[in-house]
Predict the 3D structure of the following.
Amino acid sequence: MIQPGVYKHFRGGMYTVILIAQDSTNSRERPDGSKNHIVIYLSHTNGKVFARDLDEFIELVKWPAHRTPNEELRLHPRFMRWEERQAPGWMEEEIKRLHKEADAAWERGDKKTSTDLHYEAHVLSERLKEKP
């Protein structure tokens, strides 16, 4: 079972898992009679709260979804635990990566993704300023 904490979505978004809830809907029981669990999590980008079935939260997904002919599809966890105690300089590197991905999205004409990625980089930059 996953634990509350910070998780990174396979497309790059950052989320905080707030809690794991037991689904109270009888129609969503598993074949073995056990209850489904729902993950309640918060977006770092826009502050929205989301709920997703636990099985979907931990499933493997194919990425990249829109690949070039020479690019290989790979399976990745939909969400991966993100430890903030990573190597020194990780946050600066992540900010650079986000800006690079945002610029590439802009070049492809995907302005929404570009804006979202630049905003996420901004959020990390602000967090970096807060660190002692």
Summary: The beta strands are 5-9, 14-22, 37-43, 49-53, 60-63, 74-77, 79-81. The domain at 1-82 is CATH 2.30.30.320 (SH3 type barrels.). The chain has two domains: 1-82, 84-132.
